[in-house]
Design a protein that fits this description.
Blueprint: H1 6-22, H2 26-32, H3 37-48, H4 67-86, H5 91-108, H6 117-128, E1 132-136, E2 143-147, H7 166-186
Antiparallel strand pairs: 1-2
Helix pairs in contact: 1-3, 1-5, 4-5, 4-7
The chain binds zinc ion.
């Protein structure tokens, strides 16, 4: 990194600023941005007004399987995949752009984001290391985040068959879930002429 151009360094700083604004953790910044740890910490403090939180990234693949998290995760990952296919940008920029798109979709539906940036990034890593896969729902043909190596045939998504324990929260959360599902459809990633999909709205 000793012979880095000034422009190259500006790009790194811009990348770091984007990532910090989206809520990236220090571990992620260190692995994706070619700036020293000290400079990253200084940037973080300037932008957020506080020191970066310490500690490991605490997530397992199970988080992505819970009902509402699965809907949001699936929506984000469908966008990410679409961007990856249609863009030749660096992976980290594709991640940034798809995460912003996810936030826009959620804001447009007056919902709260469930998937934070670190979880979005961790999920992409889980996909890359073959711990997660997209499974196609046999009822609505939407694509949903699932554990890798789960049986793909006969898979029914969380929208078509919410777990019984989601029943109580369903009244309150149905709006958000329905809107997220509509978001998946609006993005053109999910369902076309889905049998039984009409109940999602
Ligand atoms: Zn389904």
């Amino acid at each position: 990194m000793t012979h880095k151009s000034v422009l190259g360094e500006v790009r790194e700083v811009q990348l770091a600023i984007q990532l910090i604004q989206l809520g990236a953790r220090l571990q992620f910044l260190e692995s994706e941005v070619g700036l020293s740890r000290e400079r990253l910490i200084r940037l973080y403090k300037e932008i957020k007004g506080v020191s970066p939180p310490k500690g490991l990234l605490p997530f397992s693949t199970d988080w992505y399987m819970t009902w509402l998290a699965n809907i949001h995760s699936s929506m984000f990952y469908n966008m990410y995949q679409f961007m990856k296919i249609h863009s030749d940008e660096e992976k980290v920029w594709i991640l940034i752009k798809s995460y912003k798109l996810y936030l826009q979709q959620i804001a447009a539906q007056d919902s709260e984001p469930i998937l934070d940036f670190t979880r979005a990034y961790t999920m992409v890593r889980f996909f890359d290391s073959d711990m997660l896969q997209l499974s196609t729902c046999c009822r609505c043909s939407g694509q949903f985040v699932a554990h890798a190596h789960d049986h793909k045939s006969g898979y029914v998504c969380v929208l078509c068959r919410p777990p019984s324990r989601a029943g109580k929260a369903r009244g309150a959360k149905r709006g958000a879930a329905g809107e997220a599902a509509a978001g998946i459809e609006a993005m053109g990633f999910g369902v076309e002429a889905a049998p039984g999909g009409a109940g999602l709205h």
